[in-house]
Amino acid sequence: MVRSLYTTADDFGMDSGIDDGIIKCVETGSVKNVSICFENPDSALDPKRFEVLKSVSIGLHFNLFPPDVDINRPKDWNYTRFLFFPNPEMIREKMDLLDSAFSKLAEKGLICHFINGHQHIHLFPGWVKPLSKWALRHQIGTMRKPSELGKNSLSRKIRRPALFVMEFLGFLGERISRKYDLEWIPAICRWGGNFPWENLLSDLSDVSENKIEVVLHPGFPTVDYMKKTFSPIDYPAQMKQLVDKNLIFKTQRAGFSLEAF
Predict the structure, then answer these.
(1) Is pLDDT above 90 for 231?
(2) For burial by CB atoms within 10 Å, which of 41, 95, 126, 205 has the most?
(3) Full-model pTM
(4) Per CATH, is 3-259 categorized as 3.20.20.370?
């Protein structure tokens, strides 16, 4: 049986170099889903990019913090209080911004089909319920649940303990929102660097799930963006793999079909 592999490029709208890289991957057919930063929907409405984005499934990428905040870094852990204990005013403000982004894109024909969070903040207890309610109100039924699948998943989680935290938050988020009719897709989130696509397919060869998302970060971010964020992501290396003309063939040969939400 052919299984679905949902390839999703995150962070569209954060940086022009990232945007251009994602567009190139969409044109090659390797990226089927694009997460647009909800605070910058105009980035998707540029005429050249807009025409390409109409060919993929669009989602909204939820965020709370400036680009230079990374909740994986101890110095930024103080921001997590907003993830666990948001006040009603903050929730209303962010939901209004989501409404505005959804409407602005929909007016141009880009209907959002999924929602996720930058640094997985959509899974934190203070936000998972408001975001689940918002998603269903807009007929969005798909949410991301980090899950490092495959035969080498344990060794990867030992090297990157944050993966344990992400999986726990995914479990918790799904439990909190269990009364809502949402489909939580397990998502592989190897954002820390380049990973060989062949290794990914090999790791997934013996898993039972028929729907798996792969979170991707291709692009050529600007120097200004990298200075501002200190991002550990190897954007160009992922970019190089995703424009490989044999990638789709390799994926199909492994029993997976690249899909859109």
Answers:
(1) no
(2) 41
(3) 0.93
(4) yes
